[in-house]
Amino acid sequence: MSDVQNRIAARVVPHIPPGAVVNLGIGIPTLVADHLPDADAVFLQTENGLLGVGPTPAPEDVDPDLVHAGKQPVTARPGASYFASSASFGMIRGGHVGIAVLGALQIDAQGRIANWALPGKPVLGVGGAMDLLVGAKRVIVATTHTAKDGSAKIVAECTFPLTALRPVDVVVTEAATFTVENGELVLVDLADGVTLDWVREHTAAPFRTALRNPARHEESIDHA
């Protein structure tokens, strides 16, 4: 994974409170496990049937039978529990997962996401993302601010198939953090060195600005 992806994962960590049961989606979200300051304080779950996921193993410690839902190797923390995928989805659908961290292809102005299909490309299916959006108490998106071609991922209206109608709660990119409040995006944080002007230029959806620490962002705003 790239430095940018790791920065995004690290920026997610402050949004995860101690004691939370957290499901990490495929891609950037899986990196969150490597940035938790006290992994014992958070219980990581993967929908293929493990509660107590640890950080990414060193190459010499890889167990080919121990993987997350994206089929990449993981570690299990002491006291971890294993169970059938059906029981795992029972946890999710029953509201027992406190936080889901998901990737996204697009996020619309209402905070709804598309993260499972690209038109014209073969897909295996929506996987667990739909269940997590409906069942998790809080949903955080971890994604790059723009696509590989430089186009905005945060758009007025998604052109890719929506994963669910439920909006997410927080959107974290390498450049900014938005919350979703009353059906609108609210910019609450800028990454160091990022200007408000840059975010406006690379965000194709309307948003309200309510920076939680204006003094820290004063220089960036003045240069916007």
Automatic annotation (TrEMBL):
Keyword Transferase annotated: yes
User: Which InterPro entries does the protein's record reference?
Assistant: 3-oxoacid_CoA-transf_B (IPR012791), CoA_trans_fam_I (IPR004165), NagB/RpiA_transferase-like (IPR037171)
Q: Which UniProt keywords apply?
A: Transferase
What superkingdom heads the lineage? Bacteria
SUPFAM superfamilies membership: NagB/RpiA/CoA transferase-like
NCBIfam families to which the protein is assigned, alphabetical:
pcaJ_scoB_fam
Q: Indicate the family of this protein.
A: Belongs to the 3-oxoacid CoA-transferase subunit B family.
List the protein's name. Answer: 3-oxoacid CoA-transferase subunit B
| Protein's organism | Planosporangium thailandense
